[in-house]
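---------- Forwarded message ----------

FYI, see the histidine kinase record below. Original note from H. follows.
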Amino acid sequence: MTRASGGSGSGLSIVKKIIEPHEGVMTVHSELGQGTEMTITLPRKVTD
């Protein structure tokens, strides 16, 4: 996915507020001229 215009940057903080109560983790890696990779990891509950 690419984006041509800038944003306010509030999207990542909203995502963080959603995943933290679910014991999830968000990581962001960015390289100038290459782009940004965002990874969201959520625990999976095992049921019997």
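H. also flagged this: The first strand starts at residue 25 and ends at 31.
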